[in-house]
Amino acid sequence: MTTTTDFTAEGSKVELKAGAFTLLKLCMPELDTDAIDGLLCERIAKAPDFFRNTPIVIDLTQSEVEMADSDLAVAVGAIRGYGLIPVGVRGGSKAFQEQARLLELAVFSDNRRSAKKESTKRPRAPSSSMPVATKVVDTPVRSGQRVYAQGDLVLLAPVSSGAEVVANGSIHAYTSIRGRVMAGVRGDEQAAIFCKDLRAELVSIAGRYKVSEDLEARFMGRLVRVTLLGDALVFKKL
Prior knowledge:
Residues 136-235 form the Septum formation inhibitor MinC C-terminal domain. With 238 residues, the protein is of the alpha/beta class. The chain has two domains: 24-121, Alpha-Beta Plaits; 135-237, Pectate Lyase C-like. The protein is 21% helix and 30% strand. It contains five helices and 15 strands. The strands form three sheets. Strands 5-7-9-11-14-15 form a six-stranded mixed beta sheet, with no helix packed on it. It has a five-stranded mixed beta sheet with strand order 6-8-10-12-13, with no helix packed on it. A hairpin with a 2-residue loop joins β12 (202-205) and β13. It is globular. The chain starts with 23 loop residues before the first strand and ends with a strand. The model is unreliable at 113-120 and 124-128 (pLDDT under 50).
C-alpha cells in the first residue's frame, strides 16, 4: 500500500492525505510545438485509449533555452488538443515556472538540481535507512486497482487489463500481467521486470516505457525478463 500522512481534522468527514502517483512526463530540451505534435500523433495513433484523459507533466529539466512568454501556453494547448491533461511542469527557468503558475499548472521540484546543489555544500552523510521489505501480493489485481511497493514487488495472482502495478524496485510476476507494469519508478535504472505471462498494456522501467502496440509479438504471452540499457528497454525470453 502507498504510505500516506493523515491531515484530517478531528471529527471531520473530509480527509487530506499525501499519496504517491505515477505521472507521464513529456521530456524535451525546449518547447518545440512541431516536435510535440509529431511525437503525440505517432504515440496516440498506436494506443489511443492509453493516452485519453491522461495527466502529464512537461519536463524541461534538461533545457537551457530561454522561451517567449507565449511558448508554454501554445505547448499546453497543443497537448490538450490530443486529449491529454497537462497538470504541471518540472525544471525550466524562473520565468518559465511563473508562466506555469499563471496557467494554473503545478510546479514540481527538480530533485536532481537540488541534490547537485546540496552535494556542493557538504559531503553526503552515510545512509541510515533500513532496507525496504519486498511486498507480496497473492490476490488478483483487478481493473481500476493499483498496487504500489516501496521496494521490490512479487505478484502471485493475475493483473487484469486496466490495473496498475508499480514498484520503486523490481517486479517479479509469477502469473499473467495484462495491465500496466512499472518498475524503478523513483529512477532506479537497475530495476527489472520478470513476468511469467507478459500481456501488458504498458511496460516501464525508470520512466522509459513501451505500450502493447510497440511490444514484439514473440515476447507476448511468454516468460520474459525486461531490463534497461541506456534509454532502451531490453526484452529477453527466459
